[in-house]
Amino acid sequence: MLTIGMPRALVHYDCGDVWVKFFETLGAAVAVSPETAKDIVDIGVSLSVEDACLPVKVYLGHAAYMAKRCDYLFVPRLVSLEQRTYMCPKFLGLPDMVRAALRDSVRLIDPTIDLSKSARAMTQAVVRAASFLSKDPARSLSVWRTCSRAAAVCSTEADGRRKAVDCEEAAGLRIGVLSHPYIIIDRVLSMGLVDRLREMGASAILPESVLQDAVEPHLAELGRHIFWTHEKRIYGAGMAMASDPSISGIIIVQAFGCGPGSMIYDLFTRKCRRRSAVPVLNLSIDEHTGEAGIVTRLEAFVDMLTRAERGCM
């Protein structure tokens, strides 16, 4: 049985679950790398170029970890998931960066997913990815449709659970956290920010918790098209949070050197200052960021918000 390895970073948080189910249904064993640890970060940093952002370095660390533990490494070239909107340029170059870093130590499954051109691009990507396991395109596509439908149902149920959690935690401070999913979900990259906020008596509201109906008006009001998938969602959700009187403050967590992020977070901060009095804390992370400094700034921010809620400021 073939073993397909998946790095637990970057694209895994966008579509990893559906691909795991897809390959397993076709008969492969799927091995996902463990959660990020310091040794994985160190390996990734050693394999990366200086100007790569920390999430890319961590991805290379996960890829290196899996290289000797699988027959193939799944590294899709994620170009676009919708019309006129694209992923970060580093997503486009992931297979090339992995090959440059790992040389010939592992074979890659690297389908190109570019839905900006046509819906058929997904069909071609699925057939190519499955060619290592099945020579029957019709079966591969049938399995993919089944897995995609199941993933959509799980996503809807997860949305419901997130809303329920938001309601349960609404008694304390509600703080919006704007970040890419591959940063905030990774406890090492985010330094456990969500858990730390909970320990301080606050609940974290993520962009994924904001309904699309609340996001769209702010994107339309901007009057220009945001061309990056994650950043479009982050901006719209951030403006929705800033307009919500139940949100006490907003924390931005961005990777140092992130091009699209630096532009959108700056745009959001300027728009937010003009239209809302909600306090905003901006945290930038890289491999040199100290945990103590992040914790100190979080504690000070939460303390300030708590005092403001009590009318002490």
Tally of individual domains: 2
Number of contiguous helices = 13
Strand order of the largest sheet: 2-1-3-5
> What is the CATH top level name of the largest domain?
Alpha Beta
CATH fold-level name of the largest domain: Rossmann fold
Summed over residues and divided by their number, the pLDDT gives a mean of 87
- Alpha-carbon distance between the termini? 64 Å
Beta-strand content estimate = 5-15%
Uncertain segments are 153-169
Query: What is the structural class?
Result: alpha/beta
Number of strands: 10
Most strands sheet: 4 strands, parallel
* SSE topology string: EHEHHEEHHEEHHEHHEHHEHEH
Shape: globular
DSSP helix fraction:
40-55%
Overall CATH architecture of the largest domain = 3-Layer(aba) Sandwich
Radius of gyration, in angstroms, nearest whole number: 20 Å
